[in-house]
Every structure is written in structure tokens, then in C-alpha cells.
Amino acid sequence: MRGAKLYVIGLALAGLAGCGTALAAENAPTWVVARPVTTPATSASTPESPSATADEEPPTSATAPATPSSAPVSDTSPAPASSAPDSASASASVSPAGPAEGAVAQGHHGGPANSLMVTGTEGVALTFDDGPDPATTPELLDLLAEHQVKATFCLVGENVEAFPDLVRRIAAEGHTLCNHTWDHSLTLGTKKPAVIRADLEKTNAAIRAAVPGAEIKYMRAPGGNFTPNFVKVANELGMIGAYWQVDTRDWDHSGGESDSAHVANVIKAVKHQTTNGAIILSHDYAQPDTIAAYRKLLPWLKTRYTLIPLP
Known about the structure:
Layout: H1 2-16, E1 124-129, H2 136-146, E2 152-155, H3 157-162, H4 164-172, E3 176-179, H5 193-210, E4 216-219, H6 228-236, E5 240-241, E6 246-247, H7 259-273, E7 279-283, H8 288-302, E8 307-308
Parallel strand pairs: 1-2, 1-7, 1-8, 2-3, 3-4, 4-5, 6-7
Helix pairs in contact: 2-8, 4-5, 5-6, 7-8
């Protein structure tokens, strides 16, 4: 009983902090690695030291994606305001039933519970979570349009329902849509498959109410808390679980950190961790510093990588 109480208390404290925790060890996701890989010098889940400069250049040679550890996945995604106190080479194949109900071909995608960790090409994918946000999402869309870059937006169903016009704009401007669950529950993956399915279907329905016939190829588990059941249900609905290789930790505002220091850390994380094929995790919900960081990052990224939405 004591262990169960500590687990519940830990989740509650993490929620209050604005980001969740990993699942308990007994519920930790199963890692499936496509091929042996080497670990880069900088971990994709560890923030860079604030003392380093944002403009410091990373090594120019590409490295293989980091090998996932057997430890539980640490949360990297803040809960939206509407919720309680957040190497792949195989491409998705959808059955004739269509993307809403067609099963996805089972490939080795390298992330937790066989989620997608890299793009499978040399292209680098920018992904933005937890929106749409009426303040920051339009700024981000303007910036992406200015640089003619397409990205992937992992949408929270409650926010989709609240701001359908923004979802329509995201789709109209050619960005990829991703299901990020209805209310960003960090423990959804531990629920019964029927509960997971109902949540994902409700979110897809909200997206398609805004954009009829929208193609939704990807699902991202809140906090990266993928489980085999979570990914299996998503596959059955025609979606691949989308993890990441580069974690900007843009949600992590350390005590006393200035806006300029936070922007510098986001920039440094991307510059030092990105390699060909990387999926980069950022947030457009309530993160104005992220927009400021990408004003500097997009020109830098475009000179070094091909920027793509998740295919």
C-alpha cells in the first residue's frame, strides 16, 4: 500500500509542476530497437547547461539516434490549461479500410513500445505539441509560412474543440496532423484498450469535425508515456505512435531562468542534438519562448537539413 500511495502522490506533484512523470516501473513501455545504434555525446532528454552559448556549433557529422534505455520514459510534455494540474526505416501502411480504422503495418520504429523515433529518411521533422493555442499557434504558423517549412502538430482534443479555426488553418497550410489525446492524460496508456480507443477516436472525431476527411497518421502519447496497448490501439486506428529523438525541453522553465536564457537553451538543444532523420519535440501551447527560439533556429536548420513534416 505504501508504494501505491507514493506513486499516486508522485503523479499529483508532477502534474502540479506542469509536466508529468514516467509510468511506474511495472507499467514501463517495452523498447524495440530496429538496429544497433550508438549513443550521441549529448542525451536527447537532458537539458543543456545554461552556461553554454546558444550559438555554439555542434559537430557537423550525423550520428545515429540514441539507444533507448530500459528505464521508464521521462515526461517532456506539459499539460494544457484545459487538463488537470504535461531507427525507423519502415513507413506506415494503411489498409483499404482507410486511415481511421485501417491497421498500420508493424515495423521496427525504435522508440518506446515500438513508437517512431526518427523519420526514416534524411529529413528532419519539427513537431509541436499540445495546441492549438490562440496566442502562440498563429505566430508559429506565420513563422513557418515565412520560411516555407511544413511541420507536424500534435493536437489535444479539448483545444481542437475550442479552436477549430486554427486546426483548419494548420491543415490548409499543409502541415501534418497528429492525435495527442483528448485531455492530455499522462496515464491513458495504462487504461484498458477500450478506454484508450474511445479517447483517441473522440480526438480524431474533433479534428475531423474541424477538417472533414482529415488524414491523421500519427498519435503521440502525453509525456512520451507509450505502452504496448497504447501503440497497438493507435495502429488499429491507422496511426503510428510518434516519439522523438531531440527533446528541446521547452516546457521546462527552471526557477529563476530568464526568458532569454530559456530561449538560448532551446536553441542549444536543437543545435547540439539534431542529426539527419531526427524528430524534434517542441510545444506551441503556451510557450512564447519557443516561438522566439525558432525565429533563430529555422534559418539555421534550413541551411543544414531538409525540414519535413512526418510523412
